[in-house]
């Protein structure tokens, strides 16, 4: 669908850039992202509405960074979703071998399984 929020963000940023309203380079976008992260961290002490506003600004800036890096953000997110699902499937498949929920070792065991799945996928 062409009106997905990531695509809309990309489209309006491209339109702004065509008119010259754009960051001069990728370093400036990184700086803006740092600023937005700090604002989000501050907003968590304020209200859910402020968090939502700042979270939106972070996402908008991330799309802008993707554009400056030459990355198509929707495809990149779809690929990340797929990688997560494949890796998490390995964690799910091994769930019966982990310590019980609440055991401090459970998360470490799950993380080790996750990292192994990640290595396995990279190895092919």
Polypeptide structure, described:
The structure is a single chain. This protein folds into two domains: 67 residues, MazG-like (Helix Hairpins, Orthogonal Bundle), CATH 1.10.287; 46 residues, no CATH class. Helices cover 77% and strands 0% of the residues. The protein is built from five helices and no strands. The model has no long low-confidence stretch (mean pLDDT 95). With 124 residues, the protein is mostly helical.
- What can be said about the biggest beta sheet? none
| Overall 3D form | extended
Question: Which stretches are poorly predicted, pLDDT < 50 over at least 5 residues?
Answer: none
What count of structural domains? 2
For the terminal residues, how far apart are their CA atoms? 32 Å
The secondary-structure element order is HHHHH
Count the DSSP helices. Answer: 5
Structural class: mainly alpha
- The average pLDDT value, as a whole number, equals 95
The CATH class of the largest domain is identified as: Mainly Alpha
List the helices and strands and how they pair.
Elements: H1 5-18, H2 26-43, H3 48-69, H4 73-93, H5 104-123
Helix pairs in contact: 1-3, 2-3, 4-5
Structure described in brief:
With 124 residues, the chain is mostly helical.
Features:
124 residues, mainly alpha, Helix Hairpins, 2 domains, 0% strand
